[in-house]
Description:
The complex is a heterodimer. By secondary structure, chain A is of the alpha/beta class. Chain A is about 45% helix and about 10% strand. The longest helix of chain A has 26 residues. In chain B, α9 packs across α10. The N and C termini of chain B lie far apart (about 45 Å). Classes of the chains: A alpha/beta, B alpha/beta. The interface between A and B is large, with 45 and 41 residues.
Amino acid sequence: MPLTKEALLNMYRRMLTIRHFEEGITEFSRQGLVPGTGHVSIGEEAVAVGSCSALGDKDYIISTHRAHGHLLARGADINVILAEVLGKATGCTGGKGGSMHLSDFSRQILGTNGIVGAGINIAGGVGLAIKMRQTGQICLGFFGDGAANRGTFHEGLNMAAVLQVPTVFVCTNNQYGLSMPQCKACGNIDISARANGYGMPGYRVDGTDVIAVYEAVKSAVDRARDGEGPSLIEAVSYRLRGHSMRMDQMPGGSDYRPNGEVEDWAENKDPLKIFRSKLKELGYINEKEAEQLDAECRQLFESAADFALNSPEPEPETAFTWIYAPEGVK
Amino acid sequence: MPERQISYREAVAEAIKEEIARDDRVFLMGEDVGVLGGAFGSTKGVYDAFGGERVLDTPISETAIVGYALGAAMAGMRPIAEIMRVDWMTICMDEIVNQTAKMRFLSGGHPDVALVIRAAAEGGIGLGGQHSQSFEAWFVHIPGLKVVMPSTPYDVKGLLKSAVRDPNPVIFLEPGVLYGVSGPVPEEEYVIPLGKAEVKREGKDITIVAWGTLLPKTLNAAQTLANEGIEAEVVDPRTLRPLDIDTIIDSVKKTGRLIIAHEAMKTGGVGAEIAALVQERAFDHLDAPIKRVATPDVIIPVNRSLERLVLPQEDTVVEAVKSICS
């Protein structure tokens, strides 16, 4: 079934929200308001939104250190996520996890991860629980091209195929593992081709095209829900910013890409520009409406910033909680 | 009627069977745990009782075994994951230390991080440097984990059942050399709470804290010492995190002397932690320096004589006691 105008505009709205959120926290980081660091996904919004739009409300996601987009694409509360990035008491882990440890159990977002590739096995395990409990859900596990070279990728995908779990593995190939270009990190740059070795379908899609991502993930989700097991999707996109906000602020922290590469992708393959043109072509939006939507999404961030900046710091005693279950919990 | 006697490995399998039958969220996964019944026979009969839906034979994929168990726990199951030997927990340390132990904290107090990771531990059967180690200290060092190491068939059954019911991740270490040892295990349901030590033998002259393979060796040593007029009190902590330090302190206050005996390497072992805690809390009650009986910092050799030489034996405990009880 093709996506409706309303669904497409909603996807565009989500992509814009992610862009404004990440541009906003980049500025906050420069101002010293973000403890530690954070990893923005500017340029990768189509993968987050295309993938999450293919899920049902009860489906789970597991994500990575570069997760703000996944959370917002899944409909997590922007106030709570921003407060967490700023380390505030009103954040999803009370300011104890930060940008790399986001979750929203009301939206079935079971968590993100500071260890590259660690979420792959966890996503498989969530799929295993779904299969054992016969709940009809699926789990979508995000990871990146860097994670695809970890042993957990091999063990996790093979195990998924062996156990036939309803997990869809989505690799956001943003073409860099920190400073390492993917073409130098992989013997074969086609990560999706590895799926065949595990006995599951693999698809390589243009990760700057939100509709293409949606369609590929939707078919993998449908397949998993029909009990036909896991799939691997590789969405090829581009990380328009450096590895992390902190690293971008270091002198020379982004000096590892060929001249003009970032500018070329920003100019010609920015997923927001591509989608906006598509929506105009379809007659779903005009320039004025597009500007208005952009301003609305910027306002979403501004109001989240009001909430987060005015939120309290965590109480000292919270440093000692959540390490074990409270006494008496069964 | 005499109490039923079963082996340590049979007690493990019985605990797993009872917990799978009791709670439909509990399942067993690991290498060779199903059709074979475990590389050491410690899950024999579980697959026959419940079949492949609750007992998953997995590929040789330690990171996936623990990662999948964690994911399944986060989505409401209560997995028992087996890593065949504690030596190979090194392969999945990220899954244990960075993921499982921290998941509750890093996900805002998520209530469902209940899983048990079992492994055979310690040496004594000639399996060599990568199949004979005892890493309980590694896990005791990690907040978020509980660490259990039972030494008798009775204890292993009751503690494993508690571990499965615990809402926290539990590292459950089973001394491989004890799998064939039998002891009394009642047929009726019982559990032993985590975090409770047991005085295995009462005495007034010296306290010996021992666990794992060193527990039976220490009990034999205590008998030898009794024949020579030294009454040793033997305390088995059974759970190493959380540690029941109060029971150990109470014993030291009575005897004034302390030896900690474990098979793990001496340097950085749990014995060092117990010694530090006791001197912090009961220094004035000590009549002699605290001593540790442990494996010296070597790699466990295969040769029977060499292995026997480096692993602490009954005699090692006897000599250590005499050195501070003269």
